[in-house]
Design a protein that fits this description.
Blueprint: E1 2-8, H1 10-13, H2 20-32, E2 35-42, H3 46-59, E3 62-66, H4 77-85, E4 89-91, H5 93-105, E5 119-121, E6 125-127, E7 136-141, E8 144-149, H6 153-168, E9 176-183, H7 188-194, H8 198-201, E10 205-212, E11 215-223, H9 227-245, E12 249-252, H10 257-268, E13 272-276, H11 282-287, E14 296-301, H12 305-312, H13 316-322, H14 327-341, E15 345-351, E16 366-372, E17 379-384, H15 389-408
């Protein structure tokens, strides 16, 4: 059974915001067992909304739509769907009261413009919104079940879980199963080359690739005669992918690199402290994006040379002789933060993030990162990373995480 994702909003077609809803819905629907064959975006134009909806409904059994349910004049989804159905828009008294009570609960008075959020195509099934003011709704267009949700991601995700999954899960063929393997360390082209021939070796398997800077996700989608067979096939093919990519695979599904490294540290009872220069606190931010109190001790952003000396104990002589961007200083930063914080692992990053400041000897993108650890000599690595300032910083932070992971695995990275 095929599903289409339908995104409505001029802010999307103009590129003013990134359409994260569509990618999230596609992953969730695929995981349920549906085949997502289209993701369509239109602006806030009634005629185009109607035309796209009619086309999608004629070609798919399910349409999942977001956007256009707000209180402003450019929120036109309810009116457009009513037009497509040939029915009037009617106000739902229960929804209006729920909207009014929500405003009251947060100490605000509902403005008249919010009343339109209780208007739906006649005969629609209202979908309650427990985390926002705009309810959703569902309708039948011929043989297609169409669901309409707000564009606010947190509201959309809750409504999808509460209403849409229960309504459509039983319709999914469930003859597919997908493994999502997360990698860092190789470009997409090399990952693809290393996995050449897997689809031919495992009929029914399709490999997909998603570049989400600076990572590459490998999707192993298997189709078979039954859910059990599909899962077994996906598992077998994913095992081959793991064999070929080895340690560049750090996790699966919704794992994040900082989360995986943090879990490894916590499992060993290790504490970690960070010293950053060119990344300006990015590594610490990544590590603390989720709870990290079990293993994370401190992050010293030692941008100036004086800060490296005062806070980390880096020798002024080393700074003068080798410069801040050097293997000697990177090692001294890692050892300094480890010793001064009395932790198991000290990590340091120093480099030239750009766009200026580079020299022929130390070009923009040159980064050194180091890990001081209880297992022996401090490890220092370097690379000239491509890209703009933000990309160099992100590459550097992930490279440091990769080295910590390698040390924890007993390798040098």
């Amino acid at each position: 059974m095929t599903v289409a994702i339908y995104s409505i909003g001029t802010e999307l077609t103009r590129g003013e915001i990134v359409n994260t809803n569509a990618s999230w819905l596609a992953a969730e629907l695929t995981a349920i067992g549906f085949e997502v064959t289209e993701a369509v975006t239109v602006d806030d134009d009634p005629a185009r909304i109607v035309a796209a909806l009619k086309r999608l409904a004629a070609a798919h059994q399910v349409v999942v739509a977001t956007g256009g349910l707000g209180p402003t004049t450019d929120d036109l989804t309810s009116e457009a769907v009513a037009q497509a159905l040939g029915v009037p828009v009617v106000r739902d008294a229960a929804s209006l009261e729920a909207i009014r009570q929500r405003f009251q609960s947060i100490g605000r008075v509902m403005s008249p413009s919010n009343e339109k959020q209780a208007d739906f195509p006649q005969g629609a099934t209202v979908l309650a919104n427990p985390v926002g003011s705009a309810p959703g709704f569902s309708v039948l267009l011929g043989g297609c079940r169409a669901f309409f949700m707000p564009g606010v991601p947190s509201e959309m995700k809750r409504m999808f879980a509460d209403h849409i999954v229960p309504a459509i899960a039983r319709l999914a063929p469930r003859i597919t199963f997908q493994r999502r393997l997360k990698t860092f360390g190789l470009p997409e082209s090399v990952v693809g080359e290393k996995l050449a021939g897997i689809e031919a070796a495992y009929p029914g398997v399709i490999l997909g690739y998603r570049a989400h800077f600076p990572e590459i996700e490998v999707k192993v989608l298997a189709t078979a005669a039954s859910p059990e067979a599909a899962r077994a096939l996906a598992d077998t093919a994913a095992s081959e992918v793991r064999n070929r990519l080895a340690e560049v695979i750090y996790g699966e599904g919704n794992d994040t690199f900082p989360q995986v490294v943090g879990s490894m540290l916590a499992a060993r009872g290790f504490r970690l402290a960070v010293a950053e220069s060119c990344t300006g606190g990015l590594l610490g931010h990544l590590l603390t994006s989720e709870p990290a109190s079990e293993y994370f001790f401190a992050d010293a952003v030692t941008y100036a040379n004086e800060a490296k000396t005062i806070l980390l104990g880096v020798s002024e002589d080393d700074l003068r002789e080798h410069g801040a961007v050097s293997p000697v200083v990177a090692a001294a930063m890692a050892e300094g933060v480890r010793n001064r914080c009395n932790v198991d692992i000290g990590v340091a990053i120093t480099g030239v993030a750009g766009p200026s400041g580079g020299t022929p000897e130390k070009p923009v993108g040159l980064v050194y990162w180091a890990v001081a650890h209880p297992g022996g000599e401090t490890i220092v690595q370097k690379r000239v990373f491509p890209g703009d300032r933000r990309q160099v910083q992100m590459f550097a932070a992930f490279a440091a995480l990769s080295l910590v992971r390698a040390v924890l695995l007993g390798k040098r990275g």
